[in-house]
Amino acid sequence: MKISLVLGSGGARGYAHIGVIEELERQGFEIVSISGSSMGALIGGLYAAGKLEAYKEWVLTLDVWDVAALLDISFDKKGFIKGERVFKKLEEIMGHVLIETLPINYTAVATDIRQNKEIWFQEGDLLEAIRASIAIPSFFTPVEYKGMLLVDGGVLNPLPVAPVMSDHTEKIVAVNVYSDKPKPRIELPDSEKRRVSKLEKAKKKVKEQFRSLVKEDYSMFDIVDLSFDAMQNTLIRYRLAGYPPDMLIEVSKDVCGTYDFHKAYEVIEAGRRAAQEALERLSI
What angle do helix axes 264-283 and 16-26 make, rounded to 10 degrees? Predict the structure, then answer.
C-alpha cells in the first residue's frame, strides 16, 4: 500500500518517528511522500535521503557528554544555541541534497514569525529546510531566509497534514507524539540504563540549582518545556479537526521530555509499539 506520511514536531520525542517508519516498512507499506514539522521534518528528510539508518546508529551512541558537546552556546539574543555543531554532524551524514532530487515527495514546514505564516519547503537545499523547521524559539537561533525570520514549524502547524492532501496515495498516515495515552513500558538493555542514568543525574543537579534560586517546584527549563507542550497539544487537536488523516499513530508525550535526546533507544521503541497498535486496530 502506498501512503503519505505526516511526522509531527516534538523535540526528542521525534525519535519515535524512526520506530514508526521501520514498522510501517516491515509491514509492507510504501512511503511515497512525507511532510514534517521540526523533528518530523528532520527524520522525514533523513528517510527521504536514504540516511535514516546512519542517523539512528549515531543517536543511539549519544550519552550525556556527547549531547552537552553538541550544544554550542550562542551570544545572539535571538537564541540560546547556534546549532552549528549539530548541523555539521547532519551534513556529514546526509551531505547537501536538493529536495527536488529526492526519490519521494517531501515538505518541511517552518514558521515565518515576521508575517505569522507557514512556509513550506518543497525545493532547495534539504539541510537548510530542516534547519529552519527545527529552530525551536529561544532555544535554536532562527534562520534568516529571503527576508523571512524562520523558526520551528510547530509554532503554527505541529502536524502538517495539508501538504500531502493532494498526493495520489491510498492513505495518509500521521504520527502525533503528544498523545495523552499512558507511557509504554519499554525494557532497556543495561547499556541504555547506564546512559540514561548519567544524564538524569546531571539534569537533576541543574534543576536543583535553578530551584535554589527561584524557590519554586519548577525550574525555568520545566516551565518552558511544559508551556511548549501545552501549545503543541492544543494546536495538534485544532489541525487534526481541519485535516484528519486516514490513520493516526499516537505516541505518549510522557515517553520523554522535549530535550531528552539521550533517550533514543526508548523513544524509537515507543514509536514502533505505537505503530504496531495502530496497525492492529486498522486490521480489525
Answer: 40
> Which residue, among 121, 153, 196, 148, has the nearest Cα to 11 in the 3D structure?
153
Cell numbers describing residue 7: 511526522
**Per annotation, catalytic residue among 152, 179, 252, 260:** 152
The three-state secondary structure class of 68 is helix
Q: Which residue in the list 4, 9, 33, 38 is annotated as catalytic?
A: 38
- The span from the CA of 72 to the CA of 89, in Å, is 13
Q: What sign for the dihedral angle of Cα 151, 157, 161, 166? A: negative
Q: Which of 74, 43, 224, 55 is nearest to 142 (CA)?
A: 74
Residues of 160-171 as b/e, b for ≥16 C-beta within 10 angstroms? bbbbbeebebee
∠ CA(111), CA(174), CA(128), 5° rounding? Answer: 35
CA 213 to centroid of chain Cα atoms: 32
Active-site residue flag, 152: yes
Using CA atoms, how far residue 2 sits from 20, 31, 34, 77, 225, in Å, is 15, 6, 12, 45, 36
Question: Mind listing the pLDDT tens digit for each residue in 4-59?
Answer: 999 999 999 999 999 999 999 999 999 999 999 999 999 999 999 999 999 999 99
9 catalytic? Reply is: no
The upper half-sphere exposure of residue 195, i.e. CA atoms within 13 Å in the direction of its Cβ, equals 20
Which element (helix H / strand E) includes 179?
strand 171-179
Q: Is 96 helix (H, G, I), strand (E, B) or coil?
A: coil
Per-residue buried b or exposed e for 55-87, using 16+ beta carbons within 10 Å of the residue's own CB: bbeebeebebeebeebbeebeeeebebbbeebb
Are residues 235 and 156 in contact, defined by beta-carbon separation less than 8 angstroms?
yes
State mean pLDDT over 110-134.
Answer: 96
